[in-house]
Amino acid sequence: MGKTFRISITTFCALALASLLSPSVASANENPWLISNGHADAGLYEPRHIQNAYEKGTRSRDGKPGPNYWQNHSVHKIKMTVAPPDKKVRGEQEIIYTNNSPDPLPALVFRMYMDAHKPEALREYPTSRDFMTSGITVEEFSVDGTVMLWEDPQSPLAGMNFPGSTMHTILLPKPIPPKGSVSIKMRWSYDLVRDKGWKEGAIDESTFFLAYFFPRVTNYSDESGWDTRLFTMGREFNNDFADFEVEVVSPRDYVVWATGELQNPSDVLQPHIVARLKESEKSDQVATIAEAADIKGGKVTARAEMLSWKWRAKHVPDFALALSNHYRWQASSVVVAPETGRRAGVQAAYADSATDFKPIVEYGRQALQFASTKYPGVPYPYPKTTIILGGADEEYPMMVNDGSNIGSAEAASLPENAFTGFVATHEILHSWFPFYMGINEKRYPFMDEGWTTAFEYLRNREVLGVEKADALFKDFRVVKVGWPEAASGNDIPVITPHDSLFGQAPVFAFNQYGKAALGYLALKDLMGDEAFKKGLHTFMERWNGKRPLPWDMFNSFNNAGVGDHSWFFKNWFFGYNYMDLAVGGVRTEGGTHIVNVRNPGGMAMPFDLVLTYADGTIERVHRTPATWQSDGGATEVRVSKGKALSTVTLDTGIFVDFNPKDNSWKQ
Length: 667
Hints:
Helix 6 packs across helix 8 and helix 13 (about 530-545) packs across helix 14 (about 550-560). This protein is globular. The strands form 8 sheets. It has an 8-stranded mixed sheet. The protein has a 6-stranded mixed sheet with strand order 18-21-22-23-25-24, with helices on both faces. A hairpin with a 6-residue loop joins strand 3 (about 75-80) and strand 4. Among the domains are: about 1-55, no CATH class; about 580-665, Immunoglobulins (Immunoglobulin-like). Helices cover about 25% and strands about 30% of the residues. It contains 15 helices and 32 strands. By secondary structure, it is of the alpha+beta class. Keywords: Signal. This is M1 family metallopeptidase. One of its GO terms (molecular function) is metallopeptidase activity. It comes from Sphingorhabdus contaminans.
């Protein structure tokens, strides 16, 4: 009963906030299916909020940002103290929030991710006691110099700040006008969790990873207004782009790694360490910046009792940091923009016991080089990346938190250390989706995990070879996540907003990763590499640093001059289809063999026919998804050889057929 009541309060408050703060809603087209080329039902379904965005001119049906497009922006200035083994983190913060919208904002909604650790917080799956804390405490709060109560029971919006919420709403002294800014200052503290498997917390007694730790204004968008969905751990994030100036005060002999660039290396590191770092930034060789013994021996950091590490990052959606007094520190760099010779740094920090991390910097170099020059084929946009031994297998702008895989079953099936490299590569590839592209990971994770998983597979073909890459994808991204056995109620269209699903981890596992990745890979097969990359780059060039939605992506592909593929997007991303083909029969007419291939699952998937002739010769015939455009239920493949057929077998490769029993024919 309590949980039901809490959800009803959440819904009530969201409606109250929407009525108070949201802009007026334009009228929506009564028919959500576009009319294109004179044929009804030829386009993609448009929810009302998407239609409204088109009518307001913030977005365009050609996939471009509209003439009235806007997004809000924050500047975060944070000074914080982290002093292991003390797990209390203390911070002072200023947020300069700019309202670029056409709407006056009478209130601000803050996202407080650390409150997900409170015992009363709403969560989608069980957690350990080590996960629990008292959340984040805001001790001082002011707006434009006016001191305000953070917890104000007299506020008209006090009901929104209910126990267990990860949001906090403040009614402002006066609305922020369009194009106006406000300065928010606060002092806060929180305790790090001891659950090393989570995305942030204490990895050990003297190694901490800090993420999602600071209060921030939640996203206010042109198409949905305030994002008031709670963080319940079953989905990821939807953060605005922001600039960060972060000062981390920590004891000597602790090295701090973070998002962005270190502004004062000479103040916190000894001269020979600074020199090694600078040398690594122009070298392909992996250098050991410091061993654990060097740090313990006082040979790495400056010698003041407390050191202030100053970091800066511009136009990124988040900020994370790590620190340790016993991690090995390695670094190198790689050319990410061959036309200009620009390099990006690759660093790693890990315990000596994690022997599978020894080649991790080289794996990172290769991942950046592949992604910058092949897929997605856009130069890495940041100055560096750092891989930290933790336990979360999670990405952050310019930071990765990965666990060791020594002894895992997945690692045993691949060459030595390859699985650890595979995981790190996946997280590094997230630098483009969601960070470079500003994806709403919470609502549309298929634009984030799906693209990254597709690029990961293409990279694995180079690293592992096609056979091992195919086997890993089928096992890890399709079979083990339960997609082939998924109940029809869980095997839902990819476009389904994931923040509308609660407690549906299996749907997240196969819908947003494997199914979405296969959709992109099938599109690549349909279009061909050159046209596919043109469509992808058109989308990325238009929306880099902005906040694209799926319709912006689909329409950008269709508007890139490489054909309209609405039928395909509708099939893969909007439809209730699954992967199941069958050989319906074979007949021969005048020396031509005609193979009937049925598609009971309805998915527009590529396939190969493997034909074995009576003389023992074998032929492989490929069909792209285009074969299903005119008739999604069946197709015929004609082969003129003048030789008797012995067997015909369907080979769907990584497009795992959920019912392979009917995939062959024998004479």
